[in-house]
Amino acid sequence: MKFFIDTANLAQIKEAHELGILDGVTTNPSLMAKEGIKGQEAIFNHYRAICDLVDGDISAEVVSTDFDGIIEEGKKLAAIHPNIIVKVPMIKDGVKAIKWFTDNGIATNCTLVFSAGQAILCAKAGAKYVSPFIGRVDDSGWDGVQLVQQIANIYAVQGFKTQVLAASIRNANHIIRCAEAGADVCTCPLDSILALLKHPLTDIGLAKFLEDAKKL
Ligand code: E4P
């Protein structure tokens, strides 16, 4: 399973990258706004800075919702760097645009996916990634990881090439359960990645080893 970080914060991206386990980055308009980035030039420069930090797939999201607008915006985003993946929402014009991007050699990540039916459409349109939002599914009273499992099963049975990118991760347990469920990628906030490191018995064991090492 690949690890992406789900943030536009350069310091956090750098920290995850320095761990040596980072395969890519996902962003969205809310995450970009959180960093105070305003205007197209600043947005494009920020994507360039992320691409300079991480040599892996970097998702950059369109904000247009009509076919022509999505294509125009997606082409500009894809031109920023060869590693840019155009992130397109799961709407009717989004599916049409994903098919157009696929036919024209531009890789896509279909975002805001909440059902297996939507995931089938993403795959049929040729998206490189499908992003089920598991934390938000959990928030609505259903089981987000079960959705990841269902999509992974359908893709395996049907031989679809689209990769399942589990998004909206809220904690370390989500990451572990997504790995079990067959996710190809987990995109995670930095604190969820770092939480994987933690176990009280590791801390207790290390303290004892260090104490005993003084006797050597
Ligand atoms: C996916 O790519 C999104 O950026 C993200 O995972 C959404 O997560 P949230 O539900 O925590 O906003």
Report on the structure:
With 216 residues, the chain is of the alpha/beta class. The chain contains 11 helices and 8 strands. It has an 8-stranded parallel β-barrel, surrounded by 7 helices. Strand 7, helix 9 and strand 8 form a beta-alpha-beta unit. Helix 4 crosses helix 5, helix 5 runs parallel beside helix 6 and helix 8 packs parallel to helix 9. The model has no long low-confidence stretch (mean pLDDT 98). Bound molecules: erythose-4-phosphate. The site of erythose-4-phosphate has 11 residues, from helix 7.
Summarize the main sheet: 8 strands, parallel, barrel
Structural class: alpha/beta
Determine the fraction of residues in helical runs and give it as a percent range: 40-55%
Mean pLDDT: 98
The distinct ligands, each listed once, are:
erythose-4-phosphate
Strand content: 15-25%
Low-confidence stretches: none
Sketch the topology as an H/E string, one letter per element: EHEHHEHEHEHEHHEHEHH
* Spatial gap, N to C terminus: 41 Å
- Broad shape: globular
Main sheet strand line-up: 1-2-3-4-5-6-7-8
The rounded Rg comes to 19 Å
